[in-house]
Design brief:
Elements: H1 2-40, H2 60-65, H3 71-80, H4 94-109
Length: 115
């Protein structure tokens, strides 16, 4: 009887661990993206706005309009730049670009409200 209870508790523990770990990893990645954004992007894009070209902001509506509303398309834009947007291919690692891109998309989905 005790062995069965132990097995059930162990199973519950591992299921909870699997449920918590991805969330924690995502939160860590978004935190990393937030720091990168603050250092490299916020100067031109404070709170998702754009001080250079108003219509090219980071709000979800503008991202959709400009067809930059997926992590992959944001990664491409951050990596290679376009028009007034500088390329960050030589300034950030691929992991950093991925993190900041995920952060931008999540913030856009939340209308740039701080959690």
């Amino acid at each position: 009887m005790k062995l069965k209870t132990y097995s059930i508790l162990l199973t519950i523990f591992f299921v909870l661990l699997l449920l918590i770990s991805p969330t924690s990893a995502i939160a860590d990645e978004l935190q990393k993206g937030s720091k990168i954004f603050t250092i490299h992007c916020a100067g031109c894009h404070p709170n998702g706005k754009n001080i250079i070209r108003r219509g090219k902001n980071l709000k979800l509506k503008a991202l959709k309009k400009n067809k930059v509303d997926t992590v992959e398309s944001i990664v491409n834009l951050v990596t290679y730049g376009k028009n007034n947007m500088s390329a960050y291919e030589e300034r950030l690692t691929k992991d950093e670009i991925q993190a900041v891109s995920q952060y931008v998309l999540e913030q856009a989905k939340n209308n740039w409200r701080n959690p």
